[in-house]
Specification:
Helix 1 (5-19) packs across helix 4 (61-69). This protein has helices at residues 5-19, 28-41, 47-55, 61-69, 82-98, 116-128, 146-154, 159-163, 168-174, 186-189, 223-236, 273-279; strands spanning 104-109, 136-143, 156-157, 175-178, 181-184, 192-196, 209-214, 237-245, 258-263, 266-271. The protein contains 12 helices and 10 strands. The strands form 3 sheets. A 5-stranded parallel sheet has the order 6-2-1-7-8. A 3-stranded antiparallel sheet has the order 3-5-4. The chain is α/β, with parallel strands linked by helices and 280 residues long. A hairpin with a 2-residue loop joins strand 9 and strand 10 (266-271).
């Protein structure tokens, strides 16, 4: 554990300032588990020695690596299967009708970590909606970590990672073996465009989105940051678009512009008519 509360406080402040993620008191074990391997890789004898180095200089690549080490999110293929079932059985069929004249679909997966979520969506679209081959489908995935983006772009996963949530049928159809790892096929890999976006900072220009997946990331932010993020979501989500949050996340008591539409074991958020009428 940390020998100094000042070191823990320093990491708390560093991570918050550059990612808006809140590391609560009592999470010292988490910080230690994330930073110990980094300290070793960077040639330090201890976390304390690494923090001493961090304190001695302005923001450097080492600071970035520390922040990114603390912002890695847990992910897996078809995580919490029900949102993907809702996407397959209701959301995409609805959009096929609504967008039939323009034949264009924009989807964004925010905080994608190592890419399992956007690749899950890409496989789902390929498997169940062959009609979309003649559509302009833009599937964007983002994360604030350069390392995570690089890993996601590579599309290569070990046996443990593909065992988590991925059926044997999908594994054999959409991946091929590379030594002891599994490489996702180029058709799926090239269907996803990855880019670096810090949700708590200003966002680059993006087309208006039909679907936004922002799951299991809002729980790490304080109320002010959540309000800011939801406000930016409202600017790019189409009036009839769909926002997916994690099961433990909500817009309730944070932003009353959204309403929750719930179906069997899953739901999404839509912009309320009252908000849309004001926006017009």
């Amino acid at each position: 554990m940390f020998t100094s509360s000042m070191d823990f406080n320093y990491i708390q402040k560093l991570v918050y300032e550059h990612s808006a993620i809140v590391i609560e008191l009592g999470k010292e074990y988490l910080v230690e588990s994330r930073l110990s391997p980094l300290a070793i890789r960077e040639g330090f004898c201890s976390i304390e020695e690494m923090i001493l180095k961090l304190r001695s200089q302005p923001y450097t690549d080492l600071h970035r690596k520390v922040v990114e080490a603390m912002t890695i999110n847990e992910t897996s293929f078809f995580r919490d299967i029900y949102p993907f079932e809702l996407l397959k059985n209701r959301v995409i069929p609805e959009l096929l009708v609504k967008r039939s004249s323009e034949r264009k679909l924009n989807i964004w997966c925010a905080a994608c970590s190592t890419g399992q979520e956007p690749y899950t969506i890409a496989m789902l679209l390929q498997e169940h909606f062959p009609l979309l081959v003649n559509w302009n489908v833009q599937l964007i995935a983002s994360d604030l970590s350069q390392d995570m983006i690089s890993r996601a772009q590579e599309g290569r996963y070990n046996q443990i990672e593909v065992n988590r949530g991925l059926s044997t049928a999908f594994l054999l159809k959409y991946f091929h073996k590379q030594n002891t790892d599994w490489q996702i096929n180029d058709e799926i890999r090239h269907a996803v465009k990855f880019q670096e976006i810090n949700l708590a900072s200003s966002w680059p220009f993006m087309a208006n989105m039909d679907i936004i997946f922002m799951r299991n990331v809002m729980i790490y932010f304080d109320i002010a940051t959540k309000k800011s993020i939801f406000n930016k979501v409202k600017q790019i989500l189409k009036p009839d678009g769909y926002l997916f949050l994690g099961a433990a996340e909500t817009t309730m008591n944070i932003d009353d512009s959204f309403e929750n539409i719930y179906f069997d074991k899953a739901g999404y958020y839509r912009l309320k008519e009252s908000f849309l009428s004001k926006r017009l």
